[in-house]
Design goal:
Blueprint (H helix, E strand, L loop, with lengths): L1 E12 L5 E6 L11 E4 L9 E3 L3 E3 L2 E5 L11 E8 L11 E6 L8 H9 L3 E5 L12 E3 L11 E6 L4 H10 L8 E6 L14 E4 L2 E4 H4 L2 E3 H12 L1
Parallel strand pairs: 8-9, 8-11, 9-10, 11-12
Antiparallel strand pairs: 1-2, 1-7, 2-6, 3-4, 3-7, 5-6, 12-15, 13-14
Amino acid sequence: MRRILTEVHSLALNAFGSPTLRLRTPLDWHIAPGQAVLVDLGESSGLLSPRFPSEIAAGLVSVPLDPDSSFRPGMGLSLAGPIGTGFRPPPSSRRWLLASSEPAPVRLLPLLSRGVERGIEIVFAGSQPTLGLPPSIEIVSSLDQALGWADYLALDASRQALPSLLASLDANGVATTALAAEIVVGSDILCGWGGCGACAISTAQGSYLACSEGPVRPLSSLLERRGRRGA
């Protein structure tokens, strides 16, 4: 994890209509889709605020912003990151299925943009509005509608939705397929390296630290542990 000084480029809305803060970053600083950052948003506690970028480009990163924030272009902000591991779709994959339990799954947006740049066929499963998604993205309401078509699956889930999501995937036999699949789970990432334990994601199969063992995890690591416990 590296600490850098950024500059506010602009304020904008992401594809789901949520406010974001676009920050200029050094060209030699890199972050992968699914990784997180810590940003100095002027919190009274003095702590850096954990954020998952909704946009990643050369020299630019966008992070979710509270509606009542008073940032202006040109202001300097301290940022630390990237944190943990990001999404790593197989280079040979050409049919991506992205799905989320969240009403505004911003954690998937950088991966979606990366896929569009590479000419990947993408299906997005979710019922939330998709204001700014490219017209090439097919939208379906249920994950089940495209599981058999995809050769790569990327999931975004809240802590609360994780148990039901795993149960649904087990019922669909995802654990027994060769489908490459990864998942990012919403977490309060506070220290950036897992020392404080606040980023722990608890499941029926055990727990892991999002900072050091995530934020993105192979889906098989959760489904396989689930299967072993029930054996």
